Amino acid sequence: MADLARPASQPYSEGVPLGHSIAAHRIHGWCYLCADHTLAEEVLAWQVWAYELLPQMLERDRD
């Protein structure tokens, strides 16, 4: 997964090909429009990403 931290001077879309998902490139480093990736693969990657964040979200809600 891509690092969520980015310098303030770096725009979100830097290095993302035109028409590709900025969000997916920021989090995963790729999107389904990139070579060798499918839409199903991207959807699964988002589900795994959200599942990995679940413990952090639950812990935050307990505080």
From TrEMBL:
<protein>
    <submittedName>
        <fullName>Uncharacterized protein</fullName>
    </submittedName>
</protein>
